[in-house]
Design goal:
Number of domains: 2
Number of strands: 11
Order of helices and strands: EEEEHEHHHEEEHHHHEEHEH
CATH topology of the largest domain: Ribosomal Protein S5, domain 2
Strand content: 25-35%
Bound molecules: (3R)-3-hydroxy-3-methyl-5-(phosphonooxy)pentanoic acid
């Protein structure tokens, strides 16, 4: 069998602004290069097929759980003016799904890249973003576009859903520890609940969303000026606000407090919450290793650490 096209993507973490970004506030996201997704497109004779951890077989019979991916493949083939047949799309992922690490957007980015590669077509950022949004709108309720933007770009991003994205110049010499609670994040539920809270209690929710906005702006500045302690404090405060939104849970809170007691400068949940992952910021690799070991002892099923400096220079 001939391999005909290949596409890669890595995940993302949200440093600041999850949920608030849905309501027009800015957010800051960083690429998560520690785990990647590789999609290959193989030509064969017959119906379009897909192979992934959820399903292996004809795309036409794919289960509901991958309906976004199914629409994405059909739409991308149509965009490329190719018939919906004679390709097998094989997805291999190191990124755990539904943990707030952007695996759904990363799968989509890698699929579009692999299909364009298979048909030797150049792919612009704009077209990539538009195609990926096909799947994101099926997977998420009212997606802000933050995941797709950060993953397509593979660089730190300051994002506003109305104004678009902006680069961040990051001058921070620190480490991020990412820990997986092992519980599935529940994006749809979390986004729905926050929107209900906002509708029912605007006088409580709006000031909190505004505070997240202020902390996000402050973090953008402190990432540039290298004030790591202030970044950590902002992470702690945002976690407290997200707790008030009721989107944290025991597992996330336990890991966040473990990270802090083992030397992290700041820690918070990342992504939609109600499960998924948390992140912690440390000044150096040694502290990051201590924090990661403590998080695993406290029940994290997987941890990753990465240097903010290396992340910026990552290709
Ligand atoms: O948990 P994730 O990676 O799906 O992130 C969701 C982030 C939210 O701000 C909660 C929603 C969004 O569309 O930005």
């Amino acid at each position: 069998m001939r391999r005909s096209g290949i596409g890669y993507a890595t995940g993302k973490i949200i440093l600041m602004g999850e949920h608030a970004v849905v309501y027009g506030k800015p957010a800051i996201a960083l690429p998560f290069h520690a785990a990647k997704i590789e999609t290959t497109v193989v030509f064969h004779r017959g119906a379009t097929q897909i192979e992934c951890s959820y399903y292996k077989g004809d795309l036409a019979n794919a289960p509901e759980v991958i309906s976004g991916v199914k629409s994405l493949i059909i739409t991308t083939l149509k965009y490329l003016k190719k018939p919906n047949k004679n390709v097998r799309v094989v997805i291999q992922s190191q990124l755990p799904a539904q943990r707030g690490l952007g695996s759904s957007a990363a799968v989509s980015v890698s699929i579009v890249r692999a299909l364009f590669d298979a048909f030797h077509m150049p792919l612009s950022d704009d077209v990539l973003g538009k195609l990926v949004s096909v799947a994101e709108e099926i997977h998420h309720l009212n997606p802000s576009g933050l995941d797709a933007t950060t993953i397509s770009k593979g660089k730190p991003v300051y994002f506003d859903r109305e104004k678009g994205k902006d680069d961040i110049s990051l001058n921070l010499d620190g480490y991020i520890v990412v820990a997986d609670t092992g519980e599935l994040g529940q994006t749809r539920l979390a986004v729905t609940e926050v929107s209900q809270r906002l509708e029912e209690n605007p006088e409580v929710m709006e000031p909190l969303l505004n505070r997240i906005h202020e902390l996000t702006e402050q973090t953008r500045e402190t990432l540039e000026s290298g004030e790591i302690i202030t970044v950590g404090l902002a992470m702690n405060e945002v976690h407290q606000i997200l707790q008030q939104f009721n989107i944290s849970n025991d597992a996330l809170d336990r890991l966040v407090s473990t990270a802090r007691t083992h030397g992290a400068l700041g820690a918070k949940l990342t992504g939609s919450g109600k499960g998924g992952c948390m992140i912690a910021l440390t000044r150096d690799y040694e502290t990051a290793s201590v924090v990661a070991a403590a998080l695993e002892a406290e029940g994290a099923i997987q941890t990753w650490l990465y240097s903010l400096k290396e992340m910026i220079h990552h290709d």
